[in-house]
Amino acid sequence: MMTLIKYALHPVILLCVIGAWLMNPESPELYLVVLLCVQLLLGTLEYWVPARPTWVVHAKEKITGILIVLVLIVCSISVAMLYAAFLSEPLAQLRETLNLDFWPHDWPLVVQLFMAFILSEFIWYGIHRAEHRWHIVWRVSGHGAHHSFKRLNALNFGLNHPLELFFLALPSAVVELLFGVGAPAAGAAILMSTQASIVHSNINLSPKLIGLFFTTNRYHLRHHSIVLEESNTNYGCATIFWDRVFGSYVDGDTIECGVGPTEPSLVEKLMMPIKEPTDVSVAPV
Ligand SMILES: [Zn+2]
Hints:
Elements: H1 2-23, H2 30-48, H3 59-97, H4 109-133, H5 135-141, H6 143-147, H7 165-168, H8 170-179, H9 183-199, H10 217-223, H11 228-231, H12 241-246, H13 266-271
Helix pairs in contact: 1-9, 2-9, 3-8, 4-5, 4-8, 4-9, 8-9
């Protein structure tokens, strides 16, 4: 059973999610339904067969995390709506000026999905790398709050500083509005959130084959390392493709996660854009 989970769980989840989207490409509710199902499955397995038993969180901590993520999802939707309202016109004009009106709407939906996915991830790769490269971007985005957790589980996909929602929602919005993608952009967003859930999960998953293109939790754990050089790798949260292209892909065991030896409190995490804990070791200087 453990072997089956190790090798089959990750690809099977992705196949099911892509299949569900192909059957309902226009469904506005699918994003939340998929997220709920993926989180329930991963959350159950993290209790049943955790990769690191010491990382299993107590019910009270889990419920607090769920409530925070629910609030942040509502905020994310609001940010996406803000981007749609303010960016649609300038990006449509830019599309016209640069003659970018080439999106192949008649190509198979699954191909369009992966095109939107890889483009969105390209933008996210640049933003995420900037967060780890420049101190000002690290602080303004509140990215340290996401890295501050000593124990990771699937729910950590959504445990971000509220300020970072403006950074996280940007890639999908730009791709959709700049290229006039339509439904496949929403499909790509579903795939990215699914991947973000899997890569934070505390389950023993093999990176073999699937890790050639998709980020795995082994790769992303390294990005959450307490060691600065290890943390400055594997920036792609959904695909490892751009890390392979730009030379930031590294595979290796990760001993400890977090921004420093101790995990900041919830208030300290919220204050990180203004005041960082003194023992932070992975922030850019
Ligand atoms: Zn990061």
